[in-house]
């Protein structure tokens, strides 16, 4: 694994560059990510390029033996470009233009901006495509950041109509698939279809699902246009992009198919504060992040990445500026996070950023250096981590224990139609992931069409659509299977299947879901040390079908078992999903044991990593 | 009482219709509500009508002896119509168009849409007006659903100006009535008046009240246009409309004056979850609904209906899709709800819907059949209820105990000017209603101009405007009277009367309210087992006027008594209003007795109905 | 000190005026504020003035010996004027016009409205400029009320560009100062700069700060235009304006520089309910207001006022209409508030309003008379207060104990960039103020450039920008100094200084802040009877620099001491800031002693005032 850093030479006086470069090298870093926000310096006026400063910056870094990940600057088009075509702005769900003044002020469907993005990408690719310092390219920056994937602009509407026409061929087919006869929503042509925002009450869930798929596809094609240019002008360089945490606005499996390496940006403290963890965990882990945040994404994005190549393109090194509250990490956490990434197979951990900026939006975002150029606390830990990394031999492959099936479509569907507040496929997946991790198991988060060979346990937390490939691989799977609610409950266009849920999985599960209901907080059915909460499916099972396994004190069946298959009839959360997964792990003879609070483990062929989040200590032992 | 069901033949293959019709008849249903969302199938293209399918559907149902309530489809105009005149959309309070894509995408004031609504109504009335299967017509569907009564469109503004000119005749009269000299809000002509939204701070409450009245009147005249057409082309059929729960967007007394039967849509579980019940009650009654939800509306709408004819046009049969959490009813509740409606005098209970739709917005809304066409749990209970209904002889009239006075204007005024957060006339009425019901009393919820003959007790929970008719009937009333705060505190145009509150009721109450204040949660004055909270009126009373009755430990007077009249000086809620109403009931020698938690009763001439909501059990005994 | 009242003769029949005037005089009032909302009566049609009624009203009041504060009516332009140029409306941050229908419906940058405001001001000034009854003028009313200082209109955008050009001279200077290279936000000309609203994510804090300064300056210049006219046509009259509570939308030091007397509007109960006090305090002081609310503003605005002349232009006399809950003051509070204002040096306390209006937006806002013209409870207390005031001789100057440094820019900066939710410079100042008051100390709230002579203690709660004048006066200050977090952490354009925080104060404080972090509720470090919460600065101090003073049980340093200077490294709130200020007061030998809960004191040369808020008792003793 290499270590790297994000750097903005354009922010600093040129005579500082050599000092920075030397210190980076001394710290043990080998890759520097630059350029992704520099459009206004690369092309200060329409058509006038200024390459000189960037040439020099690259040379200075290269001279210290550092290699470059060069970003296309399409996340920050300059004001002169925006003013040429202000309708390049995305429109929010409220119909309002999202204007210039920060970043990501563009609509993925705007043809004019797509041309501009291609133009600047080509210019950079031609300039630096065969430069020896360039190790890789990053396209744009954090697609979807600030909720920018969905745009409700005229450009998006027009593109959506074309997309629908391509997908459904005939308007009758679309009306039929969506059930538009309901509420007289039938269309006579694709040109009658609008975007699903600003309707009187919620639009058809099938309409929303189509729009979510379309919006994701627009990101993919926007990215692919850059990838095509870069592959042409800069052969043999990796192409990457930096994904985000707990973000599902586009399908990362689709994006990753066009990339060599999938990167992501890891901010465990900010994510803990801003996402749905309990108040108790938000306090307990305020300086560490919940122990499964980083690992979940490592395992998720490794599963998305073509050939499993992935990296951390931005690693939190201190307090950030964007959460409600922004504490500093505990001493030891920057090293721990680095080694946790390594344990999960990262190619690179790149800290964000080299030096804290004294100005603009992120002036309170820590770096490895303080704004005055002196070392920030993280720098020492990065050096320690660099030494640790250097000492270790090859890790070997991660041990295969459990696979967890996740698809982006699942999360879109539960967002569109939660039915019970808080029922989200993403968080169901996180809960199941955490249950596995607390038992010390390795987890691969895989797409529905992934091979399940070699695992002892497969978990499908919540997958409303079950592709044929998944149904088939589950049928053929010899290990233990745990399936959560809503799985198999919908067809491709959000319709309930004629046989009801779980659709294609009915034989496997050994029953049919005849009624689903959702339960408010406070309405729970108590089991031993777990409870039924949030969601409850009633199962009708044939002779020889599933039998109740976990039953609450009042007789409510929390989970069913059919040979090697368990069905979780309540929402997969808390102690219930922990117990259920533990049972499956034991039945599958996996090396599962309850770890102490805050402790996690990752096994590779040659080493075992142990992480004590409460103490901020990471330790590595050779496998024996 | 008849039982019926809501049915959408256009959703299902035609060869299924006869099966459905036969099963409906076997279940004990006799009426089927159809057609109200079928515009795009009735008129698939502008001016081209397709009656054939609807003819056949009606025939199939009729052949099984079922009769039809046929809905005008004006709640769901098709996209081709919307595209002809996109300004038919209502504008929200935020000024944004509320677009096509769900339902109710029209402004009640839009003249073009009014013409279209008349056109489709005429077409249906001419086609089916004298068809023997047609028992009744339903106009549109749930006026106001999704907050659609108020529109802030140019069409509404223009209509509002005409409405104001008609009401006030001269602009000086309007300026004077509203007190527009305050803040220089005086107008020189009706054409200067805008809608009261998007003002810098709140608009004049008189301005809002006029707009609320206008908005209600627009619903009434929109509905009346359909009624006139239907009466002309379809004589001798009942005309009905389905009102909603806890909804006060238009004056239901006014609407009902144009109808033969007032219907409403009863979703006790959804209403419990979405409206202001305590967390404790939301959990305790999650599968039953609070025991007064359905009954309150039965008694309210019976009081609104011309000649007291009313029905339940939609009855919840299982989980719905639109609340935050959507549990299934306890076994027994569908029968209980049916019998509760009967006990209150319903002509019809119609379950919504026959079969759960596998597609579109309501795919998670249960029906009597599951999406796969098999019986859902409710079907058995409906059969039980049908048997019970058939066994019973005529109930006879409901026994007269207490009248509760409610006007829609009161709720509009407390919404416009709560003065203390949460002080709502509607919920004051619900609290008083519940207090009466918990004593086992029958309640008639009546309009301010209703006769009070035959009651032992009258409650006026919160009536800022006291029409002369009400003042007169209270003066002449011989039984016990309970009056709540704000009553008599305003004139017709929201001005404080020259003699202050309670205005026309001063002699009756025996005092003048010289100061009103509102109290935050946590500021309470403790009485025995009750407390003063929310609101507090200070009374100045003449010699021989009211005397304190309930006094808190610190001396704060919670209620006053003047002969047969009690005045509640605090907000009518909790144990305070329970005690006060109990005192009045005892003084009035009503058969009041505290029922156990969750138990309710309804007495008719021939039967006593008892409902145990906690156990989901309804029992019926003959009067002895 | 004089007592006065706000009066609206245009609301009442003319034959009532003499009765009102006589009762005012008998109550002990000598000043009457009128006219500020009367534009539609003064100029009922464009260009047609009706002075007759106002002439008579002034005469009637004058005849009773009352003198007038006459308001320019520019807060309420009439509809005919608004219709002439509807683009005079401000646009909200959401880009929507804030329309006619209440008040303050204008944009400060609209040139057309500025002309109209000058025209009506000139007309009034010419008519009444030398009238003997006119004691003073009030410009407009409550600038900024209903959040009206910031407008996002085209007029504001154009004016902002001119303002920026004047401030920065060259666009390169602006780009450099703001750090616009970050995210390619560089501009090529001032005409490329837009307002900072509706950006995709937050705009550059430097952009926001400039917009806040600009918006404040627009208020100042709008006001100055009126002042210039009034000084010309009405010499020797005081000019005043009424500021609000906890309101920082414009720089009150700047505004006051153009006024003779700075007024403010004191509503302690409404402010308690609507601003950030604990639930406990909101209940405990529901009928009194927190004991520091009024005093804080008295001391703040005295410090803003040129020559220290200030007054209470509106004093709450009973329940108001605009808080979530609106209780009545405890008997005694109206007198107590009056005497508290006197103790702090007010020239005038003017009650709002004489008689409660039965109509329009404020019909639930109490007056000294009820709507029926009878005395409201406050009237008796005003008479008592008038008698008290009359009995007292001159108070003499307030004793100088502590100075508290506050600038409006500080609050703008913490609003723009809180970094931790709830970290506000205004509330830091309030906390420090309260800590001083609870020790019985007098406090002067002063501008950063104020002289610190004569104080024993200076507190700088949170001042990100430290002007040279403040740095200098702190260096020369001989008494005790307490400095709070973020102080000195930014330059004039929101950049972190090259030496990091506390910038110019580094030597004084004896250390450098190398890391700042923010802590969520629940993450605290416990000290004896205090805790570290909200914010935490880590200090690097040189040999001989600051040493830890308050250290939490786990070793976290809460505060540092360097000779006479204390640095509070945590957020200044709760017991921590109380202890720290107490230590400084003791070291400074100030007469500090912990007062009982709810008790406060104010010392002048000749009297000591004591206020028991819990008992609603004010007592005055001569100094001995
Ligand atoms: Zn981001
Ligand atoms: Zn509805
Ligand atoms: Zn105000």
From TrEMBL, chains A, B, C:
Gene3D superfamilies attached to this UniProt entry: 3.40.50.880, Glycosidases (3.20.20.80)
BP GO annotations: carbohydrate metabolic process
Any GO MF annotation of the entry: metal ion binding
Keyword Membrane: no
A cellular component annotation (GO) from this entry: beta-galactosidase complex
Record-linked InterPro entries: Beta_galactosidase_Trimer, Class_I_gatase-like, GH, Glyco_hydro_42, Glyco_hydro_42_N
Similarity section: Belongs to the glycosyl hydrolase 42 family.
Protein name in the entry: Beta-galactosidase
Catalytic activity as recorded in UniProt: Hydrolysis of terminal non-reducing beta-D-galactose residues in beta-D-galactosides
Residues involved in substrate binding: 103, 141, 322
Domain (Glycoside hydrolase family 42 N-terminal): residue spans on this chain: 6-391
Catalytic-site annotation from UniProt: 142, 314
Entry-linked SUPFAM superfamilies: (Trans)glycosidases, Class I glutamine amidotransferase-like
Enzyme type, top EC level: hydrolase
């Amino acid at each position: 694994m290499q270590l790297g850093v994000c750097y903005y030479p354009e922010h600093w006086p040129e005579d500082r560059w050599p000092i920075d470069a030397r210190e980076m090298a001394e710290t043990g870093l080998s890759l520097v990510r630059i350029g992704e926000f520099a459009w206004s310096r690369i092309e200060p006026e329409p058509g006038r390029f200024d390459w000189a400063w960037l040439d020099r910056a690259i040379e200075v870094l290269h001279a210290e033996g550092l290699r470059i990940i060069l970003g296309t600057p399409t996340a920050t088009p300059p004001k002169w470009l925006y003013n040429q075509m202000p309708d390049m702005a995305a429109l929010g769900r409220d119909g309002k233009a999202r204007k210039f003044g920060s970043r990501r002020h563009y609509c993925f469907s705007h043809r004019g901006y797509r041309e501009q993005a291609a133009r600047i990408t080509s210019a950079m690719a031609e300039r630096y495509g065969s430069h020896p310092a360039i190790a890789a390219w990053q396209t744009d920056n954090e697609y979807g950041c600030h909720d920018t994937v969905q745009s409700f602009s005229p450009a998006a509407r027009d593109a959506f109509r074309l997309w629908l026409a391509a997908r459904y061929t005939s308007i009758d087919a679309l009306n039929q698939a969506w059930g538009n006869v309901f509420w007289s929503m039938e269309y006579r042509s694709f040109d009658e279809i609008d975007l699903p925002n600003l309707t009187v009450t919620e639009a058809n869930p099938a309409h929303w699902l189509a729009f979510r798929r379309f919006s994701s596809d627009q990101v993919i094609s926007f990215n692919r246009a850059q990838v095509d240019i870069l592959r042409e002008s800069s052969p043999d360089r990796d192409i990457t992009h930096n994904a985000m945490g707990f973000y599902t606005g586009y399908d990362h499996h689709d994006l990753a198919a066009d990339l060599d390496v999938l990167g992501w940006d890891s901010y465990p403290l900010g994510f803990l504060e801003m996402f749905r963890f309990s108040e108790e965990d938000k306090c307990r882990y305020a300086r560490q992040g919940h122990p499964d945040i980083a690992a979940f994404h490592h395992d998720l994005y490794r599963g998305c990445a073509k050939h499993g190549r992935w990296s951390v393109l931005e690693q939190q090194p201190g307090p950030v500026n964007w959460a409600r509250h922004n504490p500093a990490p505990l001493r030891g956490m920057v090293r721990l996070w680095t080694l946790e990434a390594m344990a999960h197979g990262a190619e690179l951990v790149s800290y964000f950023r080299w030096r804290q900026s004294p100005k603009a939006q992120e002036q309170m975002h820590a770096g490895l250096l303080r704004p005055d150029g002196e070392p920030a606390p993280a720098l020492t830990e990065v050096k320690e981590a660099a030494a640790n990394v250097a000492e270790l031999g090859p890790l070997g492959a991660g041990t295969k224990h459990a696979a967890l099936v996740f698809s982006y479509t699942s999360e879109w569907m539960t967002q569109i139609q939660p039915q019970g507040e808080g029922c989200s496929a993403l968080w169901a997946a996180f809960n199941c992931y955490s249950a596995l991790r607390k038992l010390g198991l390795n987890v691969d988060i895989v797409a529905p069409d992934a091979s399940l060979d070699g695992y002892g346990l497969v978990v499908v937390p919540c997958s409303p659509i079950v592709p044929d490939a998944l149904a088939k691989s589950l049928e053929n799977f010899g290990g233990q299977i745990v399936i959560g609610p809503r799985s198999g409950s919908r067809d491709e266009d959000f319709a309930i299947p004629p046989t009801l849920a779980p659709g294609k999985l009915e034989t496997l599960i050994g029953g049919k879901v005849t009624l689903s209901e959702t339960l408010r907080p406070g309405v729970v059915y108590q089991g031993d040390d777990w409870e039924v909460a949030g969601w409850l499916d009633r199962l009708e099972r044939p002779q020889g079908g599933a039998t109740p396994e976990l039953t609450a004190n009042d007789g409510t069946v929390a989970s069913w078992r059919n040979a090697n298959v368990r069905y979780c009839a309540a929402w997969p959360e808390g102690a219930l999903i922990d117990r259920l997964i533990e049972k499956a792990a034991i039945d599958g003879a996996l090396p599962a044991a309850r770890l102490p609070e805050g402790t996690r483990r990752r096994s590779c062929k040659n080493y075992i990593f142990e992480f004590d989040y409460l103490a901020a200590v990471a330790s590595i032992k050779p496998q024996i």
